[in-house]
Amino acid sequence: MRKGDEMHKAIIPVQQQLEAYNAKELERFLAAFAPSVQVYDHLNTLVLSGMDAFARHYAVLFAKYPAMKAELVSRMRVGNKVIDHERIVGRARRNRLKRLPFMKRRRGGLRKSG
């Protein structure tokens, strides 16, 4: 596999989940992630584990903040890892976020950390 093909393969599911997140298309968003998805906070503490918890969390989040969007500030890829620097907008002013999600591509979908 050529280097460009490998990079493209790592980035495709990350871009797909970003687009689904912004469109609030929950099923398409969830489809990008592995059933064993895990979410960690900035202190590396496990916050969510497994697709059921992940799906419930994002269903509530999408319903609560319909105007919420993730603006991609930058994207970096190292091997099968993709790191997006995102700015989250469309939430209450006091809840404005900057995120640095780290996505690790594995067979079966993304495993999200951070």
State the helix count.
3
C-alpha-based Rg, rounded = 14 Å
CATH-defined fold name: Nuclear Transport Factor 2, Chain: A
- Largest sheet properties: 5 strands, antiparallel
Portion in helices = 25-40%
The CATH class name reads: Alpha Beta
* Spans of at least 5 consecutive residues with low confidence: none
Total domain units: 1
* Average residue-wise pLDDT: 82
Structural class of the helix and strand makeup? alpha+beta
Specify the overall morphology: globular
Query: Which second-level CATH architecture applies?
Result: Roll
How many extended strands?
Answer: 7
Q: Which percent band covers the strand fraction?
A: 25-35%
H and E string:
HHEEHEEEEE
Distance between the termini: 29 Å
Textual characterization of the structure:
With 114 residues, the chain is α+β, with helices and mostly antiparallel strands. The protein has one domain (3-113): Nuclear Transport Factor 2, Chain: A (Roll), CATH 3.10.450.50. Helices cover 36% and strands 34% of the residues. The chain has helices at residues 3-23, 26-31, 51-64, and strands at residues 38-40, 46-49, 69-78, 81-89, 97-99, 102-106, 109-113. The model has no long low-confidence stretch (mean pLDDT 82).
Please describe the topology of this protein:
Blueprint: H1 3-23, H2 26-31, E1 38-40, E2 46-49, H3 51-64, E3 69-78, E4 81-89, E5 97-99, E6 102-106, E7 109-113
